[in-house]
Amino acid sequence: MTINNQPEPTNEQRRIIYQARRGLKELDFYFEPYIKELYLTAEAAEQESFAQMLTHEDPDLLDYFTNQSRPEDDAMWALVNKIKTWRHSKSLS
Question: Which domain holds residue 73?
Fold first, then answer.
């Protein structure tokens, strides 16, 4: 276990964590805390949805997180909403 009670990431998880660094402040608002606090302990299906999400272009991701459009994949859309809800509730506390 790492210092923040997260398991040590596998090489594949490290690759995904690296890919989550987008450089777009609006996306980093969601991705950085998710990676730090939830990703490594998420179910395998959620981790796969997150990996799939990262294959999308930044403008598309921004549209998903601002409700301008939605991905075709329902699991990915559910994850977008989970991350948004979690992150916004975290911001208020």
Answer: 20-92
